[in-house]
Amino acid sequence: ACGTDDSDPIDDGADTDEGTEEGTDTEGAQGGDLIIGQLSDAVSLDPHGSNDTPSSNVAYNIYEALLIQDENMELQPGLATEWEMVDDLTWQFTLREDVTFHDGSEFNADVVQANFERILDEEIASPRAFLYEMVEEINVVDDYTVEFVTEYPFSPLPAHIAHNGGGLMSAEVIAEDYEAIENGSEPGSVINENPVGTGPFVFESWTPGDEIVLNRNEDYWGGAPALDSITFRVVPEGSTRLADLETGAIHISDPLSPSDVSRVEGTDGMSVNSQPSVGLSYIGFNAQKEPFDDPLVRQAISKAIDKDTIINGIYDGVGLPAESPLAPDVFGYDENVSGLEYNVEEARELLAEAGYEDGFSTTLWTNDNQDRIDTATAVQAQLQEIGIDVEIEQVEWGAYLEDTAAGEHDMFILGWTTVTGDADYGMYPLFHSDNYGEAGNRTFFSTDELDSLLEEARQSSDEDERLDLYSRAQEILVDEAPMLYIHHQEFLLAVSDDVEGLWQHPTGILMLRDVSLNQ
Amino acid sequence: MQEKLLEVENLRISFSTGDSLLEVVSDVSFDIDHGQTIGIVGESGSGKSVSARAIMQLLGNNAEVGSESVIKFNGEDILSKSEKEMRRIRGNDIGMIFQDPMTSLNPTMKVGKQISETIRIHENASKKEAAARAKEIMRLVGIPNVDERFDQYPFEFSGGMRQRIIIAIALACSPKLLIADEPTTALDVTIQAQILDLLKDIQEKTGTSILLITHDFGVVANMCEKIVVMNQGRVVESGTTSEIFTSPKEDYTKKLLAAIPNLHEEKSPESKEKLIQIYSGTREKLMEVNKLAKHFPIGRKNTLKAVDSISFDIYKGETLGLVGESGSGKSTTGRTLLRLHEATSGETFFEGEDLNTYKKKQMKEMRKKVQFVFQDPYSSLNPRKKVEDIIGEALDIHKLAKSKKLRRERVEELLTLVGLDKSFSQRFPHEFSGGQRQRIGIARALAVEPEFIVLDEPLSALDASVQLTIVDLLEELQRKLNLTYLFIAHDLATVKKLSDRVAVMYKGQIVELTDSEELFTNPMHNYTRKLLSAIPVPDPHYTATDASFSHDDSVEISLEGQTLQEVKANHWVMQ
Amino acid sequence: MQEEVNLNSGSPTGQEPVNHNIVRFQDFWKKFYRNKSALIGGTLIILLILTALIGPYLTPYSPNAQNYDARLVGPSLEHWFGTDNFGRDIFSRIIHGMSITLRVGFSSVLIGMTAGVSLGIISGYFGGWVDTIIMRLMDILLAFPGILLALAIVSVLGGGMNNVIISVAIFSVPVFARISRGSTLEVRQLEYIEAVKALGASDFRIIVMHVLPNILSPIIVQATLNIATSVLTASGLSFLGMGAQPPTPEWGAMLSDGRNYMWDAPHVSTIPGLAIVVVVLAFNIFGDGLRDALDPKTKN
Amino acid sequence: MLKFLGKRLVQTIPVLIGVTVLTFSMMLLIPGDPAQIMAGESASPAQLEAARERLGLNDPVPVQYYNYVSGVVRGDLGSSIRSGRAVSTEVFGRLAPTVELAFYSTLVSVFIGLIAGVVSAVRRYTFIDSTLMIGALFGLSMPNFWLGLMLIQWLVIGTGWFQGFGWFQASGWGTPQQMILPVITLGTAGSAIIARMTRSSMLEVIEQDYIQTARAKGVSEKKVIYKHALRNAMVPVVTVVGLQFGSLLGGAVITETVFAINGLGRLIINSIRARDFPIVQGGVLVFAFLFVFVNILVDIIYRLLNKRIDLN
Ligand SMILES: Nc1ncnc2c1ncn2[C@@H]1O[C@H](COP(=O)(O)OP(=O)(O)OP(=O)(O)O)[C@@H](O)[C@H]1O
Ligand SMILES: Nc1ncnc2c1ncn2[C@@H]1O[C@H](COP(=O)(O)OP(=O)(O)OP(=O)(O)O)[C@@H](O)[C@H]1O
Ligand SMILES: [Mg+2]
Ligand SMILES: [Mg+2]
Ligand code: NI
């Protein structure tokens, strides 16, 4: 479905392997100990306590959510076998029976209730709470049926439930954690020591900053996975990860830098795994600041940038030029919406029309991510062509987030990942007037029409209607060009040829259940 | 014919300074027989030390030895020996005592180790044996408390003691030839006598030959069979000791001999007048020292009472001589007086005011009035400054030169005054001979036209004729400007000549204090007597009549329970 | 025994040039001039400065001209030093970046050295509580993560070249302070210091005229070495928005930008690295020469 | 000596207080909000607010500082904002690799630096001298990351030597095999500086009179150099070594990153970037303590080298 890299045998194997949830695919299960070298350590193994990819990667193997999204971001049964919308505000989930947690406790509706109540508990201050802030109550209907009631109609709820932030842990651990909080501990500290879920792998140990080890869950309800154990090892430097891969110290390097793709391809015994993401990289304009309050200027700039050059030049051709904020795999993406085309002549005209025939000077902010810096450098050179003088300013990450949220920028480079795979998450936080600043809308762009479209779309339960609304929203966003949509990244992994059955989710999570090592 | 131990022929040495070649030794020839002691005397800066270094092949890389020069040691040509061969000779066959005791010792190595090292290099001695031998030698050269001192560092030693360490190093392996460059100048006469006896002793036992460089004709007369007189890089005259003393041929030699200070000279009437004024209380007091003490911590608990509660007065216009055993605290007294060291206790009044209460500004004024000539001429000169700036600095500090030109003129005038060439102002300290450096120190002190100067061994490295010049200069300045001196020295003849009154120090105390005439004719304290009896007599035919006094056993004189008392009018003795 | 008259006496005559200032400078210059390393170092530095000034007018390419068709090309006739990931000509970038790199390296060292040496000498010379306070402050500064400090400077003073120079200078202050303190402690106890004290010299005078010249050599060494570290540190701070911002061809930044291409195109990082070596080499050789010329004992 | 030690240890207290105050105020000064950084690009305001409240970031500054200090006094360094783990666990867990790395690197750089410096001082102006010193400058001008990556690429991957002998695993710390390359990487610049310092200091000392005395004793040139000159030349070198050790502690970040060593340097930098104040505070505090300790050591060595230097 997503193969951009035909030369890669593993990729194909993984991609065609649908219905993985059923856990029927167990050939080649020789076991083995898989070692993954990753950029950074997990922050927390409390599924409600973090939202970074390394944490998710680990948590995904320990905990499971009620639903899962397949590689096409389509919803599939997880710990819930069925789900339906009872009315505009009520969703009902039927739970899988005979599932036990790693600590032996039983999975049932009470557990689900306890988990979601914890996420929404302000005292816990879960960074995942925003996914469920529309949920008003969680009702236990019977042992294996649970009901979510939302404050307003919210059709993407199942997608949110499927997010790994909705991973479920043993009620006993939750109780213990609360007890510890009473005694002055930080929320999650018990869970970090002893994460207990229902997933295919069981937590073994965590040396912070160094590695996390998981072991096979022999009693996994979907059948025990092939691997004996998984080690997530922190190797911050990309080149070192490759060296480790080459010397056999690790099996997977996550992530792989685009500039290293050719190197990996040229080395025996390893290959590149690429996976289109549901992310977007963009240059945001400050739509409330001159001259970016003028759509003509924003369009001019959007037209002046050759995305292909950037993708080829900086990302080594990895990634998809973005037409609109939504990636193709996101629900609501409209392939008929086409973005502003690269055309320097037209860009100049637009700029002249806006009253800047001689161009102007401005600044472009970036944080210290090398790809973003390079993008900025390329953009600077291209804007020079239409007379816009760009000064690049690097800002340290912490300050960057704060200052862009405060609207102190002219232009800035950032990214956004539609973690739920639903257009609501891909647009509502970024472009709704309620979300100015730190909530996500750092361009400070909004129109009334767009606001109402986005509101309507998130409340509608009719898929076709939603698609239609999102189409219109995307058209507006292309037209108004509050951002210059650069590209939808691809996740890149370098994988040892010993690894079989690996695939990566569009949200970046490694799917390890069916992986086996072939030594 | 038996071979000579050392033959030096046509030695010519030049230094390159800047871009000119400076010939400092020209055509020097002399030789030494086995077991012989010869003395080199001569003007300061005449090339004595340089010649000695040439024998050791330690001239440094800016020196050049003329191609026609020959130095033969034991019949072998030294100049053609490799560095490795030389190393076997140095310290073993030829021992060398360098002139400058302060900078010749490694500051970060324990003194004992510096001695035992030589033994270990040349003789297959174990560490323990070498240490035992080293201690023995330390005792031999008269270091007290050897066991304790063995593990001390050079900075903890007085000038004289350092000199003895250097002697000990040179003697450690009983060399065939000992080159001793001013070996006793920093020592008091008792120790000097001891060392000289020691050298003679060693010579007798081992047949060592000695090349002795010195200014002191008393020492030469005592020790040497032959004398070489040098002046301006050349040998002016040489011959047996009695020849030179009785029938000198050259003018320079005559001049030198004439300049030898004489103990029996009468004091001048001026001096007598001064004494009358002092004793009658009509002369103004410049300084009043009351129970001054300076203690240094040694080790963890012990303290060394370098100066242990001394009281005395200094009157305006007088010269107070300060003599005494090396290490008895003379320099420390001088330093503490001027607040270069903070006193441990006691008071010092300068022109009636307590020095300890002086504020910064007063101190600066005081510093203009009071000067210090340091005992060690080399280390008291900043190695990175030219002489012009070293002396000129004194003028700058007190704003005594109105223009650059005046400053330079004044510096040149001062150099001339102390008998140095004007052009020396452009040289750096390491380019001078010992005596020249000493005179630079004097010139610096004189630059500010002080009222009071502490002269710490100002003449030790000077030959007799230059000494005389400087002594005359000092006296003349005193007469003209009513200068006051505290004159610290070992050379008792000069002390007698220059001083109005003399204080004798021993173990940090003043043991005797009276006018110089009285002290030399009627010494009352045991230590003073011992001191006076050790004065070498500049007459080769003189043999010590007072055989009762042996130099080698340094009989400790106890000061337990004694105080300084006026035993006789104006004659204070510790009893 | 010879009894000839003086031909060439040990003591030179008193008739020589009158102006000693000139003589003194000539002495220094002569020594300096004759000192091969000083000469080579000095010439190199002058060459570098000239290149920094004139070079930018002569380069074959514009330093920021991108050419995606010639990315990561190795050194060739067309591109002497090859091209970087944007296809920019590295040779042109090196030449254009020279002035800014020299400025960062040199000014930050100069500032850091001045402040550090002053503090160190004061501390070592006076000792006691002055020493305690200064050295404890230096400890704090040393123990303190540089990034935090730099961040604070950015947030108070803003980014920009001058502030990066200040930050880098601040990092090096404790280093210079410690080194000069250590040497001062040693020099302080020497007799010639006591001798000038006896002359009534003020502490200031002693420090400037007597202590400083005698501790100069470790300071010169440290300073010339520090130029390299400063350039590298400065580029390390650019992510905070300090100092040279892309696409400025500052060498340290070029060096670290090349990091991603070290396997495929090592020249991208190696060449700026070598350029830094050349500059540091020039200053070090020069520093050695200076040291020798200042030391009266070395003759050449 | 004991008195000196006592005095210096007492002096550590103000240093540590100074460090905490400085760190604290810097943290206030610099923009960036831990809650927001934790939440990343997509955070909801309510959630941020809740997080701030929980972390006590909404308290007035003096209250925050008071809370912090009173915690420290009770031996509680607080807990990480990001992970919730106790700061002491996080910090001390990572202390050993960093200290070891700095220690071995210092050892290596002293060893190499001293030898190179002495050799080039003794053979002044010869080919060896120039080669060594130019080598030193190369060592100095190579950034750690460059050297580290090059070592990995050339030695580990390029030649296969290390993996062939089972000597090297690119990541991790603890076994001698793992230590070799990081220690070389970190120690190189240090040896360069030490070599240069030693050379210049030696040149100064060799000119002194007492070196001549030693030669006059017949001491071999080697012993003259190593027993007489070196010790006297050591004072500036010791200073540099002390500084080196200190800066290695802090400067190990890059080496730790390149070689995947789970050290304190990396932790602190990451925490600064995440505005994880308690970790930064704790880490800096530990560094400061080590630093002061190293400085005390340096002063003692000064004194051991030259008894005349008065510590009090
Ligand atoms: N390293 C040097 N460079 C230049 N000139 C030097 C050097 N060493 C000594 N001289 C000069 O050589 C001459 C002889 O010096 P030397 O030290 O031999 O004198 P000396 O006879 O030992 O005098 P003194 O009795 O004062 O010690 C002096 O004029 C001195 O200035
Ligand atoms: N800075 C110091 N630290 C420790 N001990 C010292 C110090 N200076 C001098 N002493 C000791 O004090 C005593 C007296 O020394 P001082 O230099 O005053 O002797 P001196 O009478 O001048 O001897 P000399 O005639 O040999 O110069 C000696 O035992 C010496 O070792
Ligand atoms: Mg001499
Ligand atoms: Mg003395
Ligand atoms: Ni003149």
What order do the helices and strands come in, and which of them pair?
The complex is a heterotetramer of chains A (519), B (575), C (300) and D (312).
Chain A: H1 9-16, E1 33-38, H2 53-62, E2 67-69, E3 75-77, E4 80-87, E5 90-95, H3 109-120, E6 135-142, E7 145-150, H4 157-162, H5 171-182, H6 189-193, E8 201-207, E9 211-216, E10 229-234, H7 238-247, E11 252-254, H8 261-265, E12 270-276, E13 279-285, H9 295-304, H10 307-314, E14 320-321, H11 344-353, E15 361-366, H12 370-385, E16 389-394, H13 397-405, E17 411-417, H14 423-431, H15 448-459, H16 463-480, E18 483-488, E19 490-496, E20 499-500, E21 503-504, E22 510-511, E23 516-517
Parallel strand pairs in A: 1-10, 1-11, 15-16, 15-17
Antiparallel strand pairs in A: 2-3, 4-5, 5-7, 6-7, 8-9, 9-10, 11-19, 12-19, 13-17, 13-18, 14-18, 20-23, 21-22
Chain C: H1 20-34, H2 36-54, H3 90-126, H4 128-143, H5 146-157, H6 161-188, H7 191-198, H8 203-236, H9 251-257, H10 267-294
Helix pairs in contact in C: 1-10, 2-3, 2-10, 3-4, 3-6, 3-8, 4-6, 5-6, 6-8, 7-8, 8-9, 8-10, 9-10
Chain D: H1 2-29, H2 34-39, H3 45-55, H4 61-73, H5 87-122, H6 127-141, H7 144-158, H8 161-164, H9 176-206, H10 209-216, H11 221-258, H12 264-273, H13 277-305
The structure holds adenosine-5'-triphosphate (2 copies), magnesium ion (2 copies) and nickel (II) ion.
One magnesium ion (MG) is lined by residues 48-49, 99, 181, 433-434 of chain B.
Family (chain B): Belongs to the ABC transporter superfamily.
Protein name (chain B): Peptide/nickel transport system ATP-binding protein
Keywords (chain B): ATP-binding, Nucleotide-binding, Peptide transport, Protein transport, Transport
What does this structure look like?
The complex is a heterotetramer of chains A (519), B (575), C (300) and D (312). Chain A is built from 16 helices and 23 strands. Chain A has 519 residues and is of the alpha+beta class. The longest helix of chain A has 18 residues, at 463-480. Chain B has 575 residues and is of the alpha/beta class. Chain B is 36% helix and 25% strand. Chain B has 20 helices and 23 strands. Chain B has an 8-stranded mixed beta sheet with strand order 17-18-19-14-20-21-23-22, sandwiched between helices. Chain B has a 6-stranded mixed beta sheet with strand order 7-8-9-3-10-11, sandwiched between helices. In chain B, strands 1, 2, 4, 5 and 6 form a 5-stranded antiparallel beta sheet that branches. Chain B is globular, with a radius of gyration of 24 Å. Chain C is mostly helical and 300 residues long. Chain C has a single domain, classed as MetI-like fold. Helices cover 68% and strands 0% of the residues of chain C. Chain C contains 10 helices and no strands. Chain C has helices spanning 20-34, 36-54, 90-126, 128-143, 146-157, 161-188, 191-198, 203-236, 251-257, 267-294. Mean pLDDT of chain C is 80; it is low at 1-18. By secondary structure, chain D is mostly helical. Chain D has 2 domains: 2-92, no CATH class; 95-262, MetI-like fold. In chain D, 78% of the residues lie in helices and 0% in strands. In chain D, α5 (87-122) crosses α9 (176-206), α5 (87-122) packs antiparallel against α11 and α9 (176-206) packs across α11 (221-258). The radius of gyration of chain D is 24 Å and the shape is globular. Chain D starts with a helix and ends in a 7-residue tail after the last helix. Chains in contact: A-C, A-D, B-C, B-D, C-D. At the C-D interface, α4, α5, α6, α8 and α9 of C face α1, α6, α7, α9 and α11 of D. The site of one magnesium ion (MG) has 6 residues of chain B, from α1. Residues 158-159, 330-331, 375, 456 of chain B line the site of one magnesium ion. Chain B: Residues 6-257, 287-532 form the ABC transporter domain. Chain B: InterPro entries: AAA+_ATPase, ABC_transp_ATP-bind, ABC_transporter-like_ATP-bd, ABC_transporter-like_CS, Oligopep_ABC_C, P-loop_NTPase. Chain B: It is found in: Cell membrane. Chain B: It holds the Pfam family oligo_HPY. Chain B: Keywords: ATP-binding, Nucleotide-binding, Peptide transport, Protein transport, Transport.
